[in-house]
Structure to design on (292 residues):
């Protein structure tokens, strides 16, 4: 079992620079990857997303990449000399027209940056990936390991809740005949009273047929059987990878069965156990929603 929360870090170092990748995950219904990449690596976004998908199937994943040091590929300084010449000529004309006596200097030209610009050379994407990939995979491996460690703790909590639910299901099932007998006794009293009061005006056979139908409505055998089946199915699914969404669905089904059998039984003892069962299922679901 794997949790959806965790953190990992990876570092790639080379002479003159280093690449650090941080990977963090939290709960999410699907795999939702968010990237914060330096400009240097932005063209590798699709590769990064694909690599994340190799390790993880569910959760919100935040990936931060930090580049430190000097790029192995130097930027070039380019000059637009024709623009610089026209600028010099314009400044000289302005100096003459306005009557400035100070001579023009290099600092006067440096204030105008339009003719000086830096050009980023075209990067080799394969070379960039060789810088980023090792740190990214290390971060994802650490994140995966953290999620598995957290998953083992979740599994222990879930196991405890399942054992309590199984015990409650057995106790409710053990009350089935007692509940049935209580309803029979209650209906018998009513029928006897009605026969006594109304006498020949009532069809006795018809009355007992109706009683039998009512007793069937109060029988929660199917619900308790389905609840126990869901518990067995839950344990089987929990052994499989990426089981969180399916386990959450089973929790919803278990809650529905407990609610239905409680309504059908109309018995205070069953209701008491049903309240405990629903509380346990809610706690179980809170844990399951952390499962990848």
């Amino acid at each position: 079992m794997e949790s959806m929360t965790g953190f990992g870090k990876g570092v790639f170092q080379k002479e003159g620079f280093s690449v650090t990748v941080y990977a963090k995950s939290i709960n999410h219904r699907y795999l939702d990857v968010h990237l914060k990449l330096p400009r240097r690596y932005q063209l590798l976004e699709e590769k990064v997303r694909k690599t994340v998908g190799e390790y993880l199937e569910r959760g919100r994943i935040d990936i931060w990449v930090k580049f430190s040091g000097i790029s192995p590929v130097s930027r070039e300084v380019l000059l637009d000399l024709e623009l610089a010449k026209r600028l010099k000529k314009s400044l000289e004309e302005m100096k003459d027209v306005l009557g400035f006596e100070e001579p023009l200097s290099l600092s006067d030209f440096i204030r105008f940056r339009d003719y000086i610009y830096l050009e980023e050379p075209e990067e080799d994407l394969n070379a960039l990936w060789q810088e980023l990939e090792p740190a990214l995979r290390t971060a994802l491996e650490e994140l995966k390991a953290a999620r598995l460690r957290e998953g083992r703790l979740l599994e222990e909590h879930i196991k405890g809740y399942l054992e309590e639910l199984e015990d409650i299901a057995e106790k409710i099932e053990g009350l089935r005949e007692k509940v049935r007998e209580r309803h029979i006794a209650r209906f018998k009293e009513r029928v006897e009273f009605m026969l006594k009061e109304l006498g020949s005006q009532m069809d006795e056979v018809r009355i007992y047929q109706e009683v039998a139908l009512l007793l069937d409505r109060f029988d929660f055998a199917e619900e308790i059987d389905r609840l126990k089946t869901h518990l067995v199915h839950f344990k089987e699914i929990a052994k499989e990878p990426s089981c969180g969404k399916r386990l959450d669905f089973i929790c919803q089904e278990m809650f529905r069965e407990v609610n239905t059998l409680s309504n059908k039984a109309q018995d205070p003892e069953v209701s008491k156990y049903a309240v405990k069962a629903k509380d346990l299922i809610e706690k179980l679901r809170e844990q399951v929603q952390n499962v990848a």
